[in-house]
Write a structure and sequence with these properties.
The chain is of the alpha/beta class. Helix content is 31%, strand content 20%. The strands form four sheets. It has a six-stranded mixed sheet with strand order 2-3-1-4-5-6, sandwiched between helices. The relative contact order is 0.09. It comes from Desulfovibrio intestinalis.
């Protein structure tokens, strides 16, 4: 979302349907929704686009529980222990807000938690619409809206789940926008980075440290982050978007439906990012799940690097052994860079973004056919293909089929006569000649019995 779009913040107590409403407004199932209260913790940004209407930002926030003195009180099980963090995240969002959509539950009626939070919102002085959710049709509107008039906000009854009155909601929210917000400004190019790793590896702490903002809730409790949350920031004149994801555990250990959705969202985020940052905990070492994630990223040819976080908390000899273990695991993808970092002390954090930028640039490389074939001649002269089944494969031609990642096709007399070890040699040679150090690379061998014309 462009940073200078006007933003409307969804605010409400837990389980009134803010995330379902958010998904309806942005027309995408980005926020995890569930009947259990307290699923959303971190705030999430989106954009609302409708034909012939102004474009605006929408921000989903966690459920807030306040008393009559605007102090946080204990919330439902899902947010217990995070109540103040969720309030802080919402307060940060409200500082840049244009307006507020105050969401209540029409089935539950007006509760004290709604009244206390409404008073807190009223003190912000922002244009506010009270959205009475879970009203499934016009026949229920009068009955379920009646007591909410006491809050003093304009009202609109909707059903986020069934889509009732959603067009009217967009119109009413648009009416809260300043008049000059009629066009969406062009989005600047941004490098998308996905954080991936096991629970409690420090992904959210790294994002906060790199962005210079307490954008993600950080806790020693594993599984604090649930949604895949976009965090946008600018560093040294360049725009970045971090996608923080839920911790990924082994599937056999996932018995909770919410965690299952979170893990699926985390894996999906890596396919939409330019570069993935696989984060490991130095104190925990490399688990079987870390190995699976490495193998998955390599198999999919996902551009990625490995961050060994919390390295300041591990003894030197343990770090050396960990680095050795990782290098052995990466024998099948030696191009993947490894950084020892610490979100807490700031160790080598300055290397992360430039390295990610380099990986992304390498993924976009295009090499002319002439250069490729001169390189192929050089590589073959230096080390000929081995003799297999009493004959040696002949290499005729080399071309680049695509980028993202760089993909090269060798036309050979018989691809079955080229062993895997020689394919690895070819990859290493091409990487060295064309300075593709860290991007994934695909090599394909295609059998052809005559030389292609250039």
């Amino acid at each position: 979302m462009a940073e200078n779009l006007p933003r409307i913040i969804l605010v409400g107590r837990p389980n009134v349907g803010k995330s379902t409403l958010f998904n309806r407004l942005i027309r995408s199932n980005r926020a995890i929704t569930h009947d259990r209260p307290g699923i959303t913790r971190d705030r999430m940004d989106g954009v609302v686009r409708r034909k012939d209407m102004p474009v605006f930002g929408i921000v989903d926030t966690g459920g807030i529980t306040l008393d009559a003195h605007a102090m946080v009180v204990e919330g439902p099980e899902g947010i217990r222990g995070f109540e103040q963090d969720i309030l802080n995240q919402t307060e940060a969002a409200l500082k840049d807000a244009t307006a507020v959509a105050f969401v209540v539950d029409g089935r539950d009626g007006l509760l004290p938690l709604d009244e206390h939070l409404a008073a807190h919102v009223r003190r912000k002085g922002l244009p506010t619409l009270c959205v009475v959710n879970k009203v499934d049709g016009a026949e229920h509107e009068d009955e379920r809206m009646a007591e909410f008039h006491a809050l003093g906000f304009p009202l609109l009854a909707v059903s986020a789940e069934h889509g009732h009155n959603m067009n009217a909601l967009v119109e009413d929210l648009t009416a809260l926008l300043p008049e000059e917000s009629s066009e969406e400004p062009p989005a600047p190019p941004t490098l998308r980075l996905a954080m991936l790793g096991r629970p409690n590896a420090g992904k959210s702490s790294l994002i906060n440290a790199l962005s210079g903002e307490d954008r993600m809730i950080v806790s020693d409790v594993a599984g604090t982050t649930r949604d895949s949350v976009d965090v946008r920031f600018t560093k040294n004149g360049k725009d970045y978007t971090f996608v923080d994801t839920a911790g990924v555990r082994r599937r056999t250990k996932i018995t909770d439906n919410v965690e299952k959705y979170s893990v699926n969202s985390a894996i999906k985020s890596t396919t939409k990012a330019d570069v993935t940052l696989l984060t490991l905990d130095a104190a925990e070492g490399v688990s079987q799940q870390d190995k699976r994630l490495m193998d998955m990223l390599n198999t999919r040819k996902t551009p990625f690097m490995i961050l060994i976080n919390k390295c300041d908390l591990a003894p030197r000899n343990a770090l050396d052994q960990l680095r050795k273990n990782i290098n052995e695991l990466l024998s099948f993808c030696q191009h993947v860079p490894v950084l020892l970092v610490s979100a807490l002390s700031g160790k080598d954090l300055h290397k992360i973004l430039p390295l990610a930028q380099k990986i992304h640039e390498e993924c976009s490389v295009r090499i002319s056919t002439g250069k490729l074939n001169r390189a192929m001649e050089e590589v073959l002269t230096r080390h000929q293909p081995p003799v297999v089944k009493r004959s040696r494969a002949k290499f005729f031609y080399l071309t680049q089929a695509e980028s993202q990642p760089p993909t090269f096709v060798f036309f050979v007399s018989d691809s079955e006569r080229v062993p895997e070890s020689y394919v690895r040699y070819l990859e290493r040679a091409l990487r060295k000649i064309f300075e593709i150090s860290h991007a994934p690379m695909r090599l394909h061998l295609r059998s052809s019995h005559k030389k292609k014309t250039k």
